[in-house]
Design a protein that fits this description.
GO terms for molecular function: DNA binding; DNA-directed RNA polymerase activity; metal ion binding; ribonucleoside binding. Belongs to the RNA polymerase beta chain family. By secondary structure, the protein is of the alpha+beta class. The chain is 20% helix and 26% strand. It folds into five domains: 123 residues, no CATH class; 190 residues, Dna-directed Rna Polymerase Ii 140kd Polypeptide, Chain: B, Domain 6 (Beta Barrel); 119 residues, RNA polymerase II, Rpb2 subunit, wall domain (OB fold (Dihydrolipoamide Acetyltransferase, E2P), Beta Barrel), CATH 2.40.50; 47 residues, DCoH-like; 52 residues, Alpha-Beta Complex (DCoH-like), CATH 3.90.1800.10. A six-stranded mixed β-barrel has the order 12-26-13-24-23-30. Strands 5, 6, 7, 8 and 9 form a five-stranded mixed sheet that branches. Strands 10-14-22-21-16 form a five-stranded antiparallel sheet, with no helix packed on it. Helix 11 packs parallel to helix 12. It is extended. It starts with a strand and ends in a 13-residue tail after the last helix.
Length: 600
């Protein structure tokens, strides 16, 4: 039987023996005659041979197995350690080859050398290749639930850290720099590879217990004494920029302190931080909605109104201001040119961020929560040796999440802190739980990591032993100060007359079905009515036929366009969004009728 051969889905010919052809192809690839990135596989559903050379395919290395034995031997490994050979030498000798997902369909890959059978074609380099860079940095991750492990990757990217050593010269937006970053005590094999970029948290003492209910629902309780000593203290940077634009007719913006005569003048207090050139002074403190750079735009004929024509054309204030809730010290001011050759002013604000209620924290195992309470050191539990924990973590978050790796890291961190060494928490290959327990026992502590703690309210010891240890905690970029939002009155959208959405637009808070149920359960009917009154409007409805009546302001009358009724017409208060729906239905040729009933 002849088998069709395709190269990148293009037919090139036939072969009589597909298996023999594929084996010869692979032998030539291992000898370097064919490039290593070219893959081949037999499609059993179509009975064709596919050769793939296109870009964008994901390749991964595997150890070649022949006659039930891997070609990579201990001698090769020793030579690699001594530097006598390199990885590329293993590729040239055909010991390691790169395969894509398509070719892998025809392979039989063993995870460990003892799993090799007669039909095994390849061997995994290591069981650790299943991890990405971020997941490989999580200690004891083989003891965690896989979904929780994937979820724990994101906090590592969101943690406060020193992301670049030249951050003082950069104008990145929304950046947080941790004051005192540390390396983790419990680490994995990949830490040594990425350690220059992995000072993203701090090692803290954590007690797994409850305290007055302030750490329910994943919240944590933090020691105020630790915060005062600099725990998780960071600095937040936000950048702004404004351009002096040119317009047709030789007009251009002017960077200066605006005169009170200009349109949209903001008031004298808003410009108090500006110097003579109209740019804010370095190291001055700027409050929310204060001007950073004063800019006046020339009058233009676009968007003229009868009012502007009557009063005459005036220059307009288009200054750069901080947003609502944005404040800080002016860290840096740079005056440069844009790509279009216009004057460009870039400003960076600096704001000290000390942990406060509502800030988000996480460990590397995906257990994240907000700061629920900051407690004085005198109100924190203490051990018999006088040790006061930095954080109190709720034990209710452990069973359902199945993050056993978190408990092991607490145990390993305790051993590392007491012995003054780093603990290897590499999945499958790191230090075992039994070794850590024995070492902790030899140090004079209970092998299970629990200790006697004393109640700060009564001074009595707790009747149960409390699990306490050291773990690597991260402070995340989600801070309460950046998310705090409230408003009374403000801008509304033109179409629905409802409040705008979003903090930057001074929008209202969304009040949805679940929030509705809360107020309904409390019987707060008047408050509930007020929550839905942001777009109240009045419409006229004909009581005779139920149609929307028309208000004629010229003739000062209200009438029904269907039946001509002018007497029995009622005023009804409804949401403007509902009125909009009725009008849209009418525009489609659907005439809605409303059935009225008296409220009382």
């Amino acid at each position: 039987m002849a088998y069709e051969v395709y190269i990148d889905n293009i037919f090139v010919g036939y072969v009589d023996d597909a298996n023999k052809f594929i084996e010869e192809f692979k032998e030539k690839r291992r000898k370097g005659i064919i490039p290593y990135f070219v893959n081949i596989y037999f499609d059993e559903t179509r009975n064709v041979v596919e050769i793939l050379t296109r870009k964008g395919r994901i390749l991964r290395p595997l150890i070649v197995v022949k006659d039930g034995k891997p070609l990579l031997t201990k001698e090769h490994i020793e030579k690699l350690k001594r530097g006598e050979i390199k990885w590329s030498d293993l590729e040239k000798e055909g010991i390691i080859e790169w395969v894509d997902p398509a070719e892998e369909e025809n392979l039989n890959v063993a995870l460990y050398p003892e799993d090799i059978k007669e039909d095994t074609t390849h061997l995994e380099l290591s069981s650790l290749v299943i991890f990405s860079i971020a997941t490989s940095l999580v200690p004891f991750s083989n003891r965690n639930q896989s979904a929780r492990l994937n979820r724990g990757v994101r906090p590592q990217r969101q943690a406060h850290a020193i992301y670049s050593l030249n951050f003082h010269n950069r104008f990145d937006t929304d950046i947080s720099i941790l004051y005192y970053p540390q390396y983790p005590i419990t680490r994995t094999f990949s830490f040594n590879i990425f350690k220059d970029d992995y000072a993203i948290g701090q090692n803290v003492i954590v007690a797994v217990m409850t305290q007055e209910g302030y750490n329910i629902e994943d919240a944590i309780i933090m020691n105020k004494g630790s915060i005062d000593r600099g725990l998780f203290r960071s600095v937040y940077f936000r950048s702004y920029e404004i351009e002096r634009l040119r317009y047709s007719g030789g007009l251009q913006d002017e960077i200066t302190i605006p005169d009170p005569s200009v349109e949209l003048y903001r008031g004298k207090d808003k410009y108090k931080n500006l110097e003579e050139d109209g740019i804010v002074a370095v190291e001055s403190f700027v409050n929310p909605e204060e001007v950073l750079v004063g800019r006046i735009s020339p009058p233009r004929f676009i968007g003229l109104t009868s009012e502007s024509i009557a009063t005459g054309l005036r220059k307009k204030d288009s200054s750069l201001t901080t947003g609502s809730g944005e404040e800080g010290w002016v860290d840096r001011v740079v005056i440069t040119e844009s790509n279009d050759g216009n004057l460009l002013v870039r400003i960076k604000l600096r704001d000290l961020r000390i942990p406060e209620l509502g800030d988000k924290f996480s460990v590397r195992h995906g257990q994240k929560g907000v700061l629920g309470m900051i407690v004085d050191p005198s109100d924190m539990p203490w051990s018999s040796s006088g040790l006061v924990p930095d954080i109190i973590f709720s034990p209710a978050g452990i069973p359902s999440r199945e993050t056993v790796g978190l408990l092991l890291e607490l145990l390993a961190g305790k051993v590392g802190s007491l012995n003054g060494r780093y603990v290897d928490g590499t999945p499958w290959y790191g230090e075992s739980e039994e070794e850590l327990r024995k070492e902790l026992l030899s140090l004079g502590f209970r092998e299970d990591g629990t200790e006697t703690l004393y109640n700060p309210l009564t001074g009595d010891e707790f009747k149960v032993k409390i699990f306490i240890g050291s773990i690597y905690y991260l402070r995340l970029k989600h801070m309460a100060k950046n998310k705090l939002q409230a408003r009374a009155t403000g801008p509304v959208t033109l179409l629905t007359r409802q409040p705008t959405e979003g903090k930057s637009k001074k929008g209202g808070l969304k009040f949805s079905e679940m929030e509705h149920e809360v107020l309904a359960a409390h019987g707060a009917s008047i408050l509930l009515r007020e929550m839905y009154s942001s777009d109240d409007t009045t419409i006229y409805v004909c009581e005779k036929c139920g149609s929307l009546a028309v208000e004629d302001n010229i003739r000062n009358r209200v009438y029904c366009p269907i039946c001509g009724e002018t007497e029995k017409i009622s005023k009804v208060k409804v949401s403007y969004a509902f009125n909009l729906l009725l009008n849209e239905l009418i525009s489609l040729g659907i005439w809605p009728k409303l059935k009225l009933d008296y409220k009382f």
